[in-house]
Amino acid sequence: MKKSYFSLLVLFIATLASCSNDKKLPIFGEREAKIIKGADGIDRIDTVYQTIPNFSFLNQDSTVLTQDAFKGKIYVADFFFTSCTTICPTMHRNLKTVYDDYKTNPDVMFLSHTIDFKYDKPSVLKKYAEKLGVDVAKWQFVYGSKDQVYPLAEKSYLVAVGEDNQSPDGYMHQGWLILIDKQKRMRGAYDGTKAEQVEQLKKDILILLAEEK
Amino acid sequence: MRKNIILAIFLTVISAIIYACQNASEIELSTYISNGKDIYRANCQNCHGENGEGLGELAPPLTDSVFLEKNKSKLACYIKNGTDQPMTINGKTYQGKMPAFPKLQTIDIAQVTVYITNAFGNKQGMYKYEQVAKDLQECK
């Protein structure tokens, strides 16, 4: 009698565990089927997912930052500008709580792109990072020309950005926080102005880390 | 005897009036605070935080009661026109850029000011619309 209860319990726990093991984040963006020749010489059909293309920006220390900095890491990317008076302070207040949670985990990084190519030069980004209290290698703030940053935002990270004469700040953009995996694929998008979505991001980072072990 | 009754009635009436007045001003204060809270949430909370804690060194906290008391007559100007002068809050110097809020009407400014000066550990009571209108004329 007792034994059967015990095995039931084991079964129950095993079911739970298998559920959480199965949990995977979706993969965003376009995909295409490609025929790939295997090592055994046999053709196989494989799915190729959209990835973040290589980039080269100046960071807050005026050094060149490329994807090499994110090799073997997952990261959270966003688009903002330092003189933004509306959603950016909230986005970065929330993103900082994510940063605080994963501060000691070397596999997690943060990448904030400015969309203010006129004013947000590296020295301005440096001051901003210091004032936010995150002037560290783990959280990179990058500057690039409009031609570099805007298409990357819209085509690769799927975040709308633009100049906007109607807005008092001069720019408009969406407040998404984008989760990128170790293979440079987009795995999640969270509204950085909403506390509950940011909590979801924190949980999803854990899932992604477990998946990519 | 009669005198006493008259006196008692008189005292009752006076205290009723005082009580009613107090109530009216308390009601006015709490209306200001609750409207001010909505204005704060919509316009100020992104930078100054849900609990007035500020945002790193990007935006100062609203918890320095001494600063708020001393600069009471300037707060309306800060809100209406923005500010970028260095200021010392809780012993720390901040220099940032607070945006102007030209959209906010004088009554809105009065209400949000009353809210911040009575929340986050501050308790400075009423700051009337009429006074805000006066203070706004003194903006530099």
Category by helix and strand content of chain B: mainly alpha
Radius of gyration of chain A: 20 Å
CATH superfamily of chain B: Cytochrome c-like domain
| Residues in β-strands, percent of chain B | under 5%
Question: How are helices and strands ordered from N to C of chain B?
Answer: HHHHEEHH
Q: Which whole number gives the mean pLDDT of chain B?
A: 93
Question: Element order, helices and strands of chain A?
Answer: HEEEEEHEHEHEEEEH
List the helices and strands and how they pair.
The complex is a heterodimer of chains A (213) and B (140).
Chain A: H1 2-22, E1 31-37, E2 43-49, E3 56-59, E4 64-66, E5 74-80, H2 87-101, E6 108-114, H3 122-132, E7 139-143, H4 146-156, E8 161-163, E9 171-173, E10 176-180, E11 186-191, H5 195-211
Parallel strand pairs in A: 5-6, 6-7
Antiparallel strand pairs in A: 1-2, 3-4, 3-7, 5-10, 8-9, 10-11
Helix pairs in contact in A: 2-5
Chain B: H1 2-43, H2 45-48, H3 65-70, H4 72-81, E1 87-89, E2 92-94, H5 106-116, H6 129-137
Antiparallel strand pairs in B: 1-2
Helix pairs in contact in B: 1-5, 4-5, 5-6
Give an account of the 3D structure:
The complex is a heterodimer of chains A (213) and B (140). Chain A has 213 residues and is an alpha+beta fold. Chain A has a single domain (2-211), classed as Glutaredoxin (3-Layer(aba) Sandwich), CATH 3.40.30.10. Helices cover 35% and strands 27% of the residues of chain A. Chain A has helices at residues 2-22, 87-101, 122-132, 146-156, 195-211, and strands at residues 31-37, 43-49, 56-59, 64-66, 74-80, 108-114, 139-143, 161-163, 171-173, 176-180, 186-191. In chain A, strands 4-3-7-6-5-10-11 form a seven-stranded mixed beta sheet, with helices on both faces. Chain A has a two-stranded antiparallel sheet with strand order 1-2. Chain A has a two-stranded antiparallel ribbon with strand order 8-9. In chain A, strand 1 and strand 2 form a beta hairpin. In chain A, helix 2 (87-101) runs parallel beside helix 5 (195-211). The mean pLDDT of chain A is 90. Chain B starts with a helix and ends with a helix. In chain B, helix 1 (2-43) crosses helix 5 (106-116), helix 4 (72-81) packs across helix 5 (106-116) and helix 5 packs across helix 6 (129-137). In chain B, a hairpin with a 2-residue loop joins strand 1 (87-89) and strand 2. Chain B is mainly α and 140 residues long. Chain B has one domain: Orthogonal Bundle (Cytochrome Bc1 Complex, Chain D, domain 2), CATH 1.10.760. The mean pLDDT of chain B is 93. Chain B has helices spanning 2-43, 45-48, 65-70, 72-81, 106-116, 129-137; strands at residues 87-89, 92-94. A two-stranded antiparallel sheet of chain B has the order 1-2. Chain B is elongated and about 70 Å long. The chains are: A alpha+beta (213), B mainly alpha (140). At the A-B interface, helix 2 and helix 3 of A face helix 2 of B.
